[in-house]
Amino acid sequence: MAVDRLKRKVSDDTVWYVKDLKGKGKWLRELDSTRKQELLGALSVAKNKARAVHSIKRDDFPLPVLGPELKEISRNLDTGAGFTVLRGIPLYGLPIEDIELMYAGLTSHMGEKVNQDTRGTLVDRVHDQKKSYEDITVRGYTTNAQLTPHCDTGDLVSLLCVRPAKQGGINNISCSMAIYNELLEFWPEYLEPLYRGFHYNIRGNGPPGEYRDITAHRVPVFSYHKGLLSCRYNQKAILTAQELPLSDPLSDLEKKAVDKVAELAMRDDIRFDAHLEAGDLAFFNNNTVLHNRDHFVDHEDEAQKRLLLRQWINLHEARALKYEFADHYNTGPRKGPAIHERPENSAETAVSIPRVSAKTARRRAEAGRTEAS
After folding, report:
1. Tell me: the pLDDT tens digits for 255-311?
2. Which of 231, 239, 154 is nearest to 200 (CA)?
């Protein structure tokens, strides 16, 4: 299968280095009292309509002032620097269920939520569940460990900080387009295996069957399509896939290519560190930005322990992506994990996961099908 490759450096607004982000004006937006009150008012409307996280829509959460700004932010996330932080989401005094509903209502103005696990979770709670990051079946957000550079599923990953850690937990953000430019100039031999891609350890999140734990096809790290370069990378998921059946062993060149991306992502001039405070809402474009998190030490008091809320979001208006690049769980492009169970009040009505067989997924990938949102 022919692979479209970008043979020149990325030179559009998606490229940045740490020096380009000096000052908070380029990535931080602080909400004023008008916008805070608008969010609280919209929350009241949604509650009066008896809306829930899985059912809330834009019309249920009116934002006449902030709504158009969120549309502008969405465009900038797709074609600009790829991350932004809204500071000042009004959380004080609200129960966690109201915070989750307000969060879901706000993001409904930007796109559609993507389920994050086999239970259909749309707003997940990120906290230390005392699990081991060394276990290849464990997802990193359930630990307090330092994570490896990665991106998530969907066009955006969003994190709302409810409570920061006692110490650590700093978010590391890296421009994958800058990483590409560095590779093109200094290590071009790594681009061939990165364009070819890798099987990923998907930790039981695929459809039932032989491809429940691993992608049925190779997912490219870099994909050039319709004039835009996109990146999909998760170092741990690529390397731990080698411990699973059905994976192709990595060559020395492939191992070096995977490790070089992680090394560049953490380089001082590429890695931007952002400390999220309570009420900070961060958005990362999964197609152009890698993110990471430092190890953290938590509070002893349960009521003060680190807690973030997370959403995966597909933008209402977003770049087109190739099928094999956008299918991360053998469930179809831009889709989340296969839903194996549906608990009470699940996202059943909000998310439709096509039951795509592994054979079909591989056939579509080999055919180079594309999928536009």
Report:
1. 999 999 999 999 999 999 989 999 999 999 999 999 998 876 777 788 888 899 999
2. 239
Q: Are the beta carbons of 70 and 110 closer than 8 angstroms?
A: yes
Q: What is the DSSP string of 148-207?
A: PSB--SSSEEEEEEEE--SEE-PEEEEEHHHHHHHHHHH-GGGHHHHHH-B--B-TT-S-
Does residue 80 sit in helix, strand or coil?
Answer: coil
User: If you compute the radius of gyration of the chain from its CA atoms, what whole number of angstroms results?
Assistant: 20
Structure tokens at 356: 């795509």
Where do the DSSP E strands lie in the chain? 28-30, 83-87, 111-114, 124-126, 156-163, 167-168, 171-175, 222-225, 228-231, 271-274, 280-285, 289-293, 296-297, 307-315, 321-322, 370-371
pLDDT at residue number 93? 94
d(CA 63, CA 60): 10
Dig out the tokens for 213 from the structure.
């734990």
Query: Please, how many CA atoms are within 13 Å of residue 185, restricted to the half-sphere of its CB?
Result: 9
pTM for the model: 0.89
Euclidean distance between CA atoms 160 and 283, whole angstroms: 9
Q: Helices H, strands E: what count in the chain? A: 9, 16
Domains present along the chain, CATH in parentheses: 18-371 (3.60.130.10)
Query: Tokens 């681009």 — which residue?
Result: 191
User: Which residue type, as a one-letter code, is found at position 95?
Assistant: P
pLDDT of residue 303: 80
Each residue's pLDDT tens digit, 342-355: 654 444 333 333 34
Question: How is residue 145 annotated by DSSP?
Answer: S
Beta pairing partners, 157: 284, 312
DSSP state at residue 279: T
Q: To the nearest whole percent, how much of the chain has pLDDT over 70?
A: 84
